[in-house]
Amino acid sequence: MKFLATLALFAATLGAAADQSYAQAGNAGSGNGGMHMHGSSDPAATSGATVQLGMVEISDGYVRAMLPGQPVGGGYLVIRNAGSEDDRLVSASSPLSPAVEIHEMSMQGQIMKMRRLEGGIAVPAGQTVELKPSGLHLMFTKVTTPFKQGDSVPLKLTFEKSGSIDLTLPVQGFRPGNQHN
Ligand SMILES: [Cu+2]
After folding, report:
1. What pLDDT is stored for residue 181 in this prediction?
2. Is residue 177 assigned to a domain?
3. Which of 10, 66, 82, 115 has its CB 3.0 to 4.6 Å from that of 70, i.e. a possible disulfide?
4. In CATH, what number is assigned to the domain containing residue 132?
5. Ligand 1 mean position, distance from CA 101 (Å)
6. How far, in Å, from the CA of 35 to the mean position of ligand 1?
7. Which pLDDT score, from 0 to 100, does residue 142 have?
8. One domain for residues 37 and 63
9. pLDDT score of 176
10. Centre of ligand 1 from the C-alpha of residue 62, in Å
11. Alpha-carbon span 143 to 91, nearest angstrom
12. How far is the centre of ligand 1, averaged over its atoms, from the C-alpha of 142 (Å)?
């Protein structure tokens, strides 16, 4: 009888312990669930992710890390117009820069020149437009804290027809010899 009573007590103790650990696991589980939901509501946070806005798809967005003291940084992404109407990227903005400009770099003779595209970038129906180093790009100007690898940069893009979208672009490491000027 004494043995059975001990067993019963042991079982009761186990049961209580099991309940407690179940409760803890439950809490941890809901915490993870919350984080997961936050992550999935921000689909453009990683390079290579594709987001859709109206008739355009935006993918492969990133921002180049900046050198200390450098006030400007380049932003790059790919825009595909899957629709049957032409669209246009008309503006870009970020809380980390007072003015995000749309620029184009091109070779003029032996010299790489950069100019601001006041009218934005045309994205014709069925076409893909790539913003990349030494070509079309976004330029974050007057940035007070240089972007560094591992940071993420909020960016809002506005299209003439498809509307506006908020993205978060990852910052990729600075590669010498391929810098913005
Ligand atoms: Cu530029």
Report:
1. 45
2. no
3. 66
4. 2.60.40.1890
5. 7
6. 36
7. 95
8. no
9. 56
10. 15
11. 17
12. 12
Q: Residue 168 carries which side chain, given as an amino acid letter? A: T
Distance 175 CA to ligand 1 centre (A): 16
Residues 117 and 73 in one domain: yes
- Tell how far the Cα of 126 is from the centroid of ligand 1, in angstroms: 26
pLDDT of the residue at 49: 80
Tell me what pLDDT residue 48 has: 58
pLDDT, averaged per 10 consecutive residues of the chain (181 residues), comes to 46 40 37 34 54 96 90 96 97 97 93 94 98 96 93 97 96 66 45
* Burial (0-12, 13-18, 19+ Cβ within 10 Å), 49: middle
Residue 76's Cβ-count burial label (10 Å; 0-12, 13-18, 19+) is: buried
- Ramachandran sector of residue 143 (left: φ over 0; alpha: ψ -120 to 50; beta: rest): beta
Token pair for 61: 């967005």
**Pair 164, 121 in one domain:** yes
Q: What is the pLDDT of residue 138?
A: 98
